[in-house]
Amino acid sequence: MNEVGTSLFRSRVTALDGPDKVTGAARFTFDVILRGMLHAKVLRSPHPHARIVAIDTSSAEALPGVVAVVTGADAIKLPDPYYGVAIRDQPVLAIDRARYIGDMIAAVAAVDEETAYRALALIDVRYDLLLPVTTIEEALADGAPLLFDAPAAGAPIKLGDGVTSLKEPRPNVLCEFGYAKGDADAVLAKSDHIFEDRFRFSRINHFHLEPYVNVARVTGEQIELWSCNQDPFVLRGDISRIFGRPANNIRINASYIGGGFGGKSFCKMEPLLVLLAMKAGRPVRLCLSLDEGLLTLTKHAGILTLKTGVTKDGRLTARRSEIQLDGGAYSDASALTVVKTGYRITGPYRWDAVATRAYAVRTNTVPAGSFRGFGGTQASFASESQIDMIARRLGIDPYDFRRKNLLAVGEPFQPGDSAVDSDLGGGLDEIVERLGYRQHRRSAAQDHKARGMGLSIGIKDGGGTANHAQALVKVLPSGRAIVNAAAVEIGQGATTALSRIAAETLKLPLDWVRYGAIDTDHTPLDNGTHASCGTAVTGTAVMRAATDACGQILEFAAEQLGCRADELQLDNWTVRRGNHAHPLEPMIAEHFGGAGFEFIGRGMVKVLNDPRAPLGAASLFWMPSWVGAEVEVDRETGKVRVLQLVVGADSGRSVNSVACRGQVEGAVLQALGQSLFEELRYQGGEPVNATPLDYRVPHAADLPDHYEAVIFEYGGPGPFGAKGIGEAGMLGVASAIANAIHDAVGVRLTEIPFTSERVLAAIEASS
Amino acid sequence: MTADIDITVTINRRTYRLNVPPNRIFADLLREDLLLTGCKIGCDQAVCGACTVLVDGLPVTACTTFAFELDGTAVTTIEGLSEEGMLHPIQRTFLEHSAFQCGFCTPGMILSVKALLEHYSDPDETTIRQWLDANICRCTGYQMIIEAVRAAAKAVAE
Amino acid sequence: MRAEAGDGGAFMAGGIDIVNRMKFGEPITEMIYLGGLTELGAISDTGGGLRLGSLVTHHQIETCALVRARFPELAQTWHDVANIRIRCKGTIGGNIMAADPNYDFALAAMAAEAHLDFLGQDGAVRSVSAMALGGLSAYGLLTGITLPSAARLRLAFDRSLRPAITLALGLDVEDGKVIGGRVAIGCAFPAPVSLCLPISEPLSSREAVERAAILARDHAASLPEPMTNQHASARYRRQMIEVLLRRNLATLGERIT
């Protein structure tokens, strides 16, 4: 692996969750079993759009072994049966309408899964079919059928001054974001060239191998959930609101999560399960199949139209963007995704003026929501493809064009926002070097296999917006420590990174620190395991908690030793005063006796609100993704083979460099899959390949011959200079491959995936 | 349905005599009856390989294997890899090379690697990639897993 | 042994398909497990060709010394079919009887002009040409597949454009010349499709290479309309049949001695 820069954490560590994971001892929500637990299954709509006229569950309820059945009639009795981020339009269970094939209509709790399945078949639903709208164009057409009769609960996302944030501004439009800097139309009008290009982005599914799985138990006033959700406190808040129950009697228990990628963020089927458990009077487990997972959430597909002005010598002037995201049937996290896609469309460049309009369209397809990259992927694909197109049209090398326009370290991303904190040009240079960009020669036109290289720099703001986190660090009499924070381990390495931050601060060996079990009664609040905020945000709270604990320990020791705390230093559970070392364990035993004493350090962090910043707070850090790709294109079949992928990302300062590398490599391969073949395909309102057999994800054999992750350490605001890096690998891959294909065969693909057929069609069209 | 079937199967070096319904799925038997929960069920249709176990040394998806098919066989699950508390070399190299992230695919992946190294003593990168085509990992991007396998090949040979 | 599964019944060989069919709700109430019939898992020499029992696994095709010696392209191609798990458990008989156009062994059987042996309800054994594939379960239980003499057969496979198309090519060779052949196409039609190559007179190696483009074009044109589905359009498939056939005819033709 390659690291550029220096790191405090030079030594390689074994992941603390490793031994559990390699021995099969690791427990996931998938493994949770409660005594007397029932098993649930969900009845899903076979129609993309239909009114629910009647549901007869009597036969299902009469089936031996069935304990409870719930429908929209049960959901509608809840104090607030809707959820969604900012805009809450998704019902706990469909109430009067089914809005996509897969929409949850009813649920059964039975003694085993087989009985539950049989019961589903006995539920009789009468539908009145409605005309579906299944594409952005259809949904926006005049007179298009509407998915919703009435406005949804909620409010538009609060952003900074001068930024537009609208809720349900037009028929079948969920929300809209608008940003302007300067007068884009005036600047465009004065530009030497204006280029307008349109890009289409596809929908993919998270396909985490651990399915969506939850266990709910309602006993009297108490609601308990064992959930695979990435955001336990967000979920607690939703359950509290939906059921009208106080949050201090709702406990969400987290375990290791078997993959999330954003798919397990925010409310999903947990309220449905709680409803069912209440009616059943027994604990209930709902484990979706991966097939159902494909019908639960996707990444936003969309159409991005960029109108970009440039001077004749290649300086970018203004960009007007129109971004239409396909939000699917329900809000989920579309409101936030729209904001982020819109904000990131300007890429890592300097602009005189910007005008952006981004909105989510409601269609009768699977809801789209949070997916690693969160709009940054869509934005980077469009922007970095167009940058290359513009460079080529002007006869300028795409590397030179980018270098000319990149934001420098210290330059604000936009007025009011934080400054770019990564050396964008330096990173590009390193990738160019490792790719062999300068040495490559284009293939001759007669070669039936042509090679080409492409570059891209994706970017997103990282760490969430105005984010916050809390943490506790408990140090036991023996010096062993427990970190209590609710960044859930989804494979990103939160366990080890946060433990290491605590260990480093307390000057303890890493294997003396344990990352504590997470439940919302005992663990301090966290705003959610997403936005690559674990290290920089939750990690800061952990560091402050560890620092607080340090302070308490030194105060205690000072009292015992009759000196000042500032004369003392902590080292390996020993207090040093000058040349003298005083072990703490005996000191504690002497003073306290009995069970001893735990030092409990408390820490929190809140990124300040700032109405002058476009998003309502300055972005905590910037997450670029530099990509160099080399492809080989078969001119006769259109098949694209990726020969090389060199991807750089900035960890700020790697707390665990091997985990950083793993995050980049994993994300890059997801992006590679989406670029070449992975897609949840629809024919009208019907998903065509929503089963694991037909939904192809990358396998080991899909790796490029040469695949390299480069971790830069340009510093950041988190502990010891860290940032977040989990999403970086997603951002620039598709555009780098599109740029490489263009370099190879002179054709431009503006729609992903770059299937052989699409590439061949483009080659034929150009000749 | 036919009456329950008697089977004799050795799992992790221990012999079990069991009486199973004809349609009992092996993954369920492992997880529910024998509490060997290291076998995780992902896709439940033989695509992802998360539930891979070794039957007479060959990788098989427990989610699509009937329990009766195991009669007279020797099965290895992830729990059976370490001996007397000592990790198997493959488990050690997976730890050393951080060849996992969320861990859900890991037991099946490690067992698949065990079978690979029993078939090929020093597999090259192509052979490893082809063999591991049977195990989906959504987290790692496979590269670090492949490095762990190469290291394990050396460790196993010693 | 009954050779008929009957309503609600099914044969189980490796079980690759049957468990998934049951999980997706197919009401299979009776299953006849063939795993104990070890004689169906044998590969034997017919003196030039091979007889493959229907329970022979893909892994055996990949690794058996006799297959590697007689039909090296078949063994090499089979190294890449599906994945190691499926190759170890899945059988070539199950593969053929699933009648899935995306599956590969039917293509090999057609390209080789293999013969399929079926044990009928009446206890009689019938041998059917692989070229006549279609409505196979009517014949009874598949017990074996006989590949003809390797000395007279050259095989090539191209799976590079899965799942748009896969192609198996079999050329009949006599006295160093190509006297005929068959092309089997998978993934492009609702069932595997095979047609004989329009070779009217013996072709030398050089002639086969030179005529590859024309043969491919004529052959592709004579095929029925491929299907359009989520993986590829009919037009692309027809184009690619011609491209892959031309390439493979040229490559195979070059190696005829």
Structural summary, described in words:
- The complex is a heterotrimer of chains A (767), B (158) and C (257).
- With 767 residues, chain A is α+β, with helices and mostly antiparallel strands.
- In chain A, the strands form nine sheets. Chain A has an eight-stranded mixed sheet. A six-stranded mixed sheet of chain A has the order 12-13-21-20-19-14, with helices on both faces.
- The longest helix of chain A is centred in the C-terminal third of the chain and has 28 residues, at 534-561.
- The radius of gyration of chain A is 27 Å and the shape is globular.
- Mean pLDDT of chain A is 96; it is low at 1-7.
- The mean pLDDT of chain B is 96.
- Chain B has five helices and five strands, in the order ββαβββαααα.
- Chain B has 158 residues and is an alpha+beta fold.
- In chain B, α2 (89-96) packs across α5.
- Chain B has two domains: 5-78, Beta-grasp domain (Ubiquitin-like (UB roll), Roll), CATH 3.10.20; 89-157, DNA polymerase, domain 1, CATH 1.10.150.120.
- Chain C has nine helices and eleven strands.
- In chain C, the strands form three sheets. A five-stranded antiparallel sheet of chain C has the order 3-4-7-5-6. A four-stranded antiparallel sheet of chain C has the order 8-9-10-11, sandwiched between helices.
- In chain C, β8 (153-158) and β9 form a beta hairpin.
- The longest helix of chain C is centred in the C-terminal third of the chain and has 21 residues, at 234-254.
- Chain C is globular, with a radius of gyration of 18 Å.
- The A-C interface holds A 636-637, 639, 681, 683, 688-689, 693-694, 755-757, 760 and C 20, 160-161, 164, 229-230, 232-233, 236, 239-240, 243-244.
